[in-house]
Design goal:
The complex is a heterodimer of chains A (352) and B (439). Chain A is an all-alpha fold. Chain A is 66% helix and 0% strand. In chain B, strand 2 (59-62) and strand 3 (65-67) form a beta hairpin. Classes of the chains: A mainly alpha (352), B alpha+beta (439).
Chain lengths: 352, 439
């Protein structure tokens, strides 16, 4: 359009006058030289060429435009139309299996919102429309077919509550469109940005929902979920308790060993077995005092005793050696304690 | 009977027909337009009792002579006549106002009545192909017309098919074998009644030439061409009346105009097809200044390279074009205006490259030399300025332009095409004719 009438008065006339003057003179020189054939300037060409668009620039340019439009658009009808275009981008990217692009578009709206606060309701409505079952089904099917690509995590994390509800709902049907293992994986990705999307489901009355969500929470890497998990660590169903302990250890790392050690006292063999596995998997010698303490009280079965002693012996560290010696040196042991001593003795011989 | 009179007749006819379909046109404005058509008809029939204007194979013919350039300039008129199955119009000397008005109404679909007074006759002298000097249009000219159609389609259907638009950009790339200079001359075509469409195509041609000049590859040039062609697409949805108004804009008009970048970006974002993201960025940013001024505000973000390129070309074409509120300016004057904005309005690096590409006197510039000849600048590699003489010092028009090399000291004045009575695009047609005759 015509710059003479379309450009507003220059409000920055006082800013950087010298710089503008220099720019003018530089270009002026070229203008004068152009009469005699122009003058090449390699430095300028190189500067300009450094900005040539490359692979991936189109996506980020589009996201930049979208955010600018969201910021400047003040007409509700046009704002809603813009959101429809945005929704179309996400749908198209999902349908072609481009989860990175879909996630980038999604975050353009959901992360650091730039739109007027008054328009938040339009965004909520657009999210609701975007989260139609057909598209979400397409999403999970394509994700599963693509092998649960990590590149999808930003998309799932940015989608929020509607996606979580869909996936939890998927666990309730007899024949989900993808296996529950996949759904748990996606729930974990969905909770990465805000694990509070998942933790309310830990209070669900259905044990299998709590179990799956606990697993998913463990995959989020968000330690802020620990209190919510601790609240269900004594869940009535041992299948839930197993996953809660695993999630706690996953989220707290070495500091979470105490949950596994405590689980060794659980009445359920399933929970105790899971606890042993968690302790075995821990690289830290911090597990040793906990196990020794439990062995002192005498675990439920001889098999569990052997497995716990093995957890110590497998470490082959000086601390493990000392622990085994201490168990062997116990005098007057009877019952379970005698078993501990004998198992420790065998382990110590192997150790040496 | 000359090509110039044929073009003027078509321009006046198109102008009347456009006023018939546009809302808010006063009776006086309509009467003025019809008077201009009557005047153009008088000139058209000054040397004979009647003139026959034919439509065949995507071109206008005056008697047997092809009006290739006018076919580009008034492409939508050509299309309208084809839609109405008008193969020929015979205009009699002294054609009446009413018959000419009826013709315009018939062409534009406002009426099905034929001119009743017999001074304008429809399809009574349809010529056979053998009666016409039919020759192929250049690829560039064809693509130019297709680009106009693509933009009109957007307006009529209110849908944007990026694939179709990319198709015409590909046509420009395929036609660029003719050399960038040809594109630059072709980009001098304007149409006062369809400013946006012609402006958009010109900006596309010039931007692609600039892209080539700075070293963009084919794919990048294609995206730049798409972005440039669609940079003003937001005007399709902005109130057209505000954009066509004579004189300075009111505050309300100004508010409408300011919306066209975001309307354009939104329209492109809502479309589907490759390259839309960059095109949307250009549509949104082409009125943002490098000092952060302009509109809309990007909160300090610098416009993208393509946007800065298109902004310069956009301004150049706008300044060299007639607008209802001001006359056109010469290419050299336009470069001077751009120069004043180096570092504030425009990116100085890109502007410098643009000026290098265009030269002091861009291809298509019309100059009067000290000896009195009128020359048009053409692309050339010589040390001096290269042009063709299109009018001798005694004022006679040359039948076949002859080349000339001169220096800046030989230039007496720069001329607008209206002042020179010559359209650079029609001279391009002479070159095409010469090439055709030589084959």
């Amino acid at each position: 359009m015509d710059t003479e009438r379309d450009t507003e008065p220059d409000t920055t006339a006082d800013m950087g006058t010298d710089w503008h003057g220099q720019q003018y003179e530089r270009v002026r020189a070229v203008f004068d030289a152009a009469a005699s054939g122009g003058s090449g300037d390699v430095a300028i060409l190189e500067r300009v060429r450094a900005e040539f668009p490359g692979r991936g620039d189109d996506l980020h340019a589009g996201v930049g435009v979208l955010r600018d439009l969201l910021r400047v658009e003040s007409r509700p009808e046009r704002f809603r139309r813009l959101l429809r275009a945005w929704s179309g981008k996400i749908g198209a990217a999902i349908r072609r299996g481009d989860f990175y692009s879909a996630g980038t578009w999604m975050r353009a709206v959901t992360e650091s919102p730039v739109f007027p606060a008054d328009f938040a309701l339009h965004v909520t409505e657009a999210m609701r429309e975007l989260s139609r079952e057909e598209l979400l089904q397409d999403l999970v099917v394509k994700l599963a077919a693509a092998g649960d690509p990590p590149s999808a995590a930003p998309l799932l994390a940015a989608w929020g509550e509607p996606l979580v509800e869909y996936m939890v709902g998927g666990m309730l049907v007899d024949e989900p469109v993808v296996s529950r293992r996949h759904l748990v994986e996606y729930l974990g990705m969905a909770g990465r940005a805000d694990v509070r999307l998942l933790t309310p489901w830990l209070r669900d009355p259905r044990w299998f929902i709590v179990r799956n969500v606990a697993t998913a929470v463990g995959k989020t890497g968000r330690a802020t979920a620990v209190p919510a998990l601790e609240a269900v660590v004594d869940h009535a169903d041992d299948r839930v308790r197993v996953e809660v302990v695993r999630a706690l250890v996953a989220l707290k790392g070495d500091e979470g060993i105490g949950y596994a050690v405590a689980a060794l006292r659980d009445q359920s063999p399933r929970v105790r077995q899971a606890a042993v596995s968690l302790l075995r998997a821990s690289p830290s010698d911090e597990v040793i005092p906990g196990i020794v303490g439990i062995l002192g009280d005498g675990p439920a079965t001889g098999d569990e005793t052997r497995r716990l002693v093995d957890v110590i012996a497998e470490r082959r560290s000086p601390q493990a050696l000392e622990a085994l010696k201490g168990l062997v040196a116990k005098r007057g042991a009877i019952g379970g304690s005698r078993t501990v001593r004998e198992v420790a003795k065998v382990a110590l011989e192997r150790f040496r | 009977m000359s090509e110039l009179h044929g073009r003027n007749f078509l321009r006046a006819l198109f102008h009347v027909s456009q006023r018939m379909v546009r809302s808010g046109v006063t009776t006086q404005l309509m009467e003025d337009a019809i008077t201009a058509l009557v005047d153009a008809t008088e000139m058209l029939t000054i040397a004979s009792d009647e003139a026959v204007l034919s439509v065949a194979r995507d071109a206008f013919y005056l008697d047997r002579n092809m009006l290739a350039h006018a076919s580009t300039e008034f492409h939508s008129l050509l299309q309208a006549m084809k839609r109405r199955k008008i193969d020929s119009v015979t205009v009699v000397k002294g054609a009446t106002r009413q018959d000419l008005a009826d013709l315009a109404a018939l062409v534009v679909g406002k009426s099905d009545d034929l001119p009743a007074e017999g001074t304008v006759r429809i399809n009574d002298r349809a010529m056979a192909a053998s009666d016409l000097d039919i020759r192929p249009m250049s690829g560039l000219r064809k693509t130019y017309a297709e680009s106009l159609d693509a933009l009109r389609d957007v307006r009529e259907s209110r849908t944007l098919q990026l694939g179709e638009v990319l198709g015409v950009v590909d046509g420009f790339i395929a036609g660029s074998n003719a050399g960038p200079g040809t594109s630059l001359i072709m980009a001098t075509v304007h149409n006062h009644d369809e400013i946006t469409y012609y402006h958009s195509v010109n900006v596309c041609l010039l931007s692609m030439a600039l892209g080539r000049f700075i070293g963009l590859n084919n794919d990048q040039t294609r995206l730049l061409g798409l972005s440039a062609l669609l940079h003003d697409i937001g005007r399709v949805v902005v109130d057209e009346a505000a954009l066509q108004r004579d004189g300075r804009l009111s505050n309300e008009d100004w508010a409408q105009v300011r919306l066209h970048p975001q309307e354009g970006a939104l329209a492109i974002m809502a479309a589907s097809g490759p390259g839309q993201e960059l095109a949307a960025a250009v549509a949104l940013e082409h009125h943002v200044r490098v000092d952060g001024g302009g509109y809309p505000s990007l909160k300090g973000r610098r416009p993208a390279l393509f946007s800065r390129m298109v902004a310069i070309v956009d301004a150049y074409d706008a300044i060299t074009s007639y607008r209802p509120y001001r006359p056109a300016r010469t290419p050299n004057e336009a470069l001077r205006v751009l120069l004043d904005g180096a570092g504030t309005i425009h990116d100085p690096d890109v502007l410098r490259l643009f000026i290098e590409m265009m030269g002091h006197y861009p291809p298509g510039s019309l100059l009067r030399l000290a000896g009195g000849e009128v020359v048009m600048i053409v692309p050339g590699e010589d040390e001096g300025i290269v042009g063709v003489v299109v009018r001798e010092s005694d004022g006679t028009t040359v039948q076949r332009p002859r080349p000339i090399t001169f220096t800046g000291a030989d230039v007496a004045a720069q001329l607008l095409s209206d002042e020179a009575g010559i359209d650079p695009g029609s001279l391009l047609e002479l070159v095409e004719q010469g090439e055709h005759a030589g084959r």
